[in-house]
Amino acid sequence: MLCVLMLGCSGFKRQEIACSTRMVYVSVPVDITPPAELLQPPYTGPLPKFIAPTDPTAIEAYDASGARLLRQLLLQLRGRDDAWRALHKKGPIP
Known about the structure:
With about 90 residues, this protein is mostly helical. It has helices at about 1-10, 35-40, 65-90.
């Protein structure tokens, strides 16, 4: 049996395989650079101050100017949130 195995292996011809190196360029996704206005702090001014609900000038626990400022801040933050979501909904650049 050993003799048969040796004879079978002695007839095996070695195959040579030629190979070459090729450069293959693949596009890599790159994160989107956000616009400068989205990288800035949303608001750097003074924030509205709470006042007592019993104060006769109180509107939503703020005076009129504080309530107006709060609404402006919330609208600005909502707009920035929408802008960030729209920017990232596009996904990375291929």
